[in-house]
Amino acid sequence: MDVVNLDQISFKPLLAEVKAAMINAINQDYFNPSSQHKRGEQAAEVLDAARRSVAGLINAAAAKEVVFTSGGTESVNHAIKGVAMANAEKGKHIVISNIEHNAVIRSVRRLKSMGFRVTSVSVDDKGRVNPRDIAEAITDETILVSIMHSNNETGTIQPIEEIGKITREKKIIFHTDAADSVGVVPIDVQKLGVDLLSFAANTFYGPPGVGGLYIRRGTRIYPLLDGGVQEHNKRAGTENLIGIIGMGAAAQVASARLDQWVAHCQGLKDKLLAELPDAIDEYIINTHPVHSLPNMVSISVQYIEGESVMLMLDDDDIAVSTRSACATGSLRASHVLISIGLSHADAQGTLVVSFGKDTTEDDITKFLTSLKEVVTTLRNISPLYNKVSNSTA
Amino acid sequence: MDVVNLDQISFKPLLAEVKAAMINAINQDYFNPSSQHKRGEQAAEVLDAARRSVAGLINAAAAKEVVFTSGGTESVNHAIKGVAMANAEKGKHIVISNIEHNAVIRSVRRLKSMGFRVTSVSVDDKGRVNPRDIAEAITDETILVSIMHSNNETGTIQPIEEIGKITREKKIIFHTDAADSVGVVPIDVQKLGVDLLSFAANTFYGPPGVGGLYIRRGTRIYPLLDGGVQEHNKRAGTENLIGIIGMGAAAQVASARLDQWVAHCQGLKDKLLAELPDAIDEYIINTHPVHSLPNMVSISVQYIEGESVMLMLDDDDIAVSTRSACATGSLRASHVLISIGLSHADAQGTLVVSFGKDTTEDDITKFLTSLKEVVTTLRNISPLYNKVSNSTA
What we know:
The structure is a homodimer of 393-residue chains.
Chain A: E1 4-5, H1 16-28, H2 38-58, E2 66-69, H3 72-87, E3 93-97, H4 102-112, E4 117-121, H5 131-137, E5 142-146, H6 160-169, E6 173-177, H7 189-192, E7 196-200, E8 211-215, H8 230-233, H9 241-279, E9 283-285, E10 296-301, H10 306-315, E11 318-319, H11 335-339, H12 344-348, E12 350-354, H13 361-380, H14 383-392
Parallel strand pairs in A: 1-11, 3-4, 3-5, 5-6, 6-7
Antiparallel strand pairs in A: 2-8, 7-8, 9-10, 10-12
Helix pairs in contact in A: 1-9, 2-9, 3-4, 5-6, 9-13, 10-13
């Protein structure tokens, strides 16, 4: 099944280097890195090498500031719940934004039921947080600020560095969910001034279900997984060594090729945005014109259902998504799109088009051609569209 | 490096079928199973097939009672913390035993700091819990009983079915940590009468860092990882599909070959126990003579350090462990061995010899030959041993 994958926010194909590294790991049958005999030590060395590669990609000061997890969601849960539980005596107030991923929103909801208070800051109509709003939301009770680096539905990038200056000055722990940024745009944890940063390997063509949490040295945080002494006592459990080796390989390649990937994706994004008006009319671009990821565009096509568009494109062997894959099955309109001011109807008409290093200009052209047909067909049968057309005719 | 792996409690080599399935998964580049287009649906089908295989291995009534996790530790944390948080209004009392894995002990310790009370039941000198003690420990406030199926340091198997009868009658949620049992001995969640059961893929020659939690339909439990709607809303986060496919393949093979594996390991265990007196004297067997796993033996060699034995065997290319790999680096004597009545000195002299389907009689003979030499060498330089020898001479 040869499909044009314009749903790379949900899944990116593995790099050839990642495949080779993982297949080699499978055939090597590495022992448990915690074992003290020489085969265990050999595995521990391999684990450390992967940690150094990943630390390099985000410019961590020390490799041991990287804790391997089962992905972005675990990292976020670890960061938020771990900081909350470890610092509850100092205060029980947390600041987030209205457009965070459900991993953040549902983690703080869990904490709310335990007596924590949460302030959720609103965003402007392009989905950006104003750092001044963060400064104002912080109280004497605040122990954590968690603002995502980029949004998984719109691609809009937040002013993390500015927020980092505020949190540092006020000595408050700052977490950023960078699950859609690490490996897509340059990320430097030291420059950003964050204490915690969540990321996922598949975002940079590594395996799904593998990720990491950057924990700045000295940050007060409890483990989410209690048990053994793995990961420098920060995350118990026998390591997913095969997956971690895959992430290490992906990080190494990403470090070397990131500039090239950014330029390639930006070219495709520019093409898509430039040619979209020739394909369809009456749509809204939800992605920030300047501060946004190079690899995705969120388009709300008015008067029709995004899900119908997605399914009809699927018939043409083009994969896109209507929203976060994590929220599939939920019938509610996206909280992100409602937060940036979209109507429920426009939110339901949203497509997320996301691409990667192997996407071609031809793929974008195919998408636009197919989209034009699909939108025409759907609008012809849309009572809402016909009503609007008639009234403006 | 060709090593005799008698540390299979820490790491088992992957089955050929597991390697093939994982390599195929890597090459297939499956999409995100949550995506709604056809490539997403294809991935969802693969995920479901793995779930059915794993459910079959533990005889779950429905495949969706199996939740995929990042391993035994996550499963245990999920079970204990998830039940505690979801049932706190009913009561805040939990019953465990003194010999649980650190994942259990540290999870309940975390809960203690949140106001939960824990009763830890002692075990007899072969490490077995008395079901009557569990019945007596249960109060009106008890919301959870968590007793491991088999112990990872001694191999002793607990009377889970009898405890299950008690918890069912008293309508209390019952979790068993079966991380060292599933795939080693037959496990039937329906027969055991447990509500929750934790397991890990590497125990049955699947990949490390992959596991599952059986959650009986209707069990009141919160997720540990909050976020997306994956795993029927029970465990958020993009799935480690490559690892899960590996676990599915391992479960399928284990279901077919378990009887054969049990017989093979039992034969090696019998041989080891029968020939050990010819190799060394003055040792204690910590493994229960009847109720224990077929694939391991815990031996406390008196008057010497287990770690020295382990390192000298390692020089002979024989891998064994002195205790749980998860506790490596901890200097304290094993709580499990102290709980069954060993002195600190004897606990420090403990070796765990664990084997698998590929272990040969020759491996056992090599181990015994090497052990004999090592123990002789170490006792010759042991002041404690010479003192005891002289006083009894």
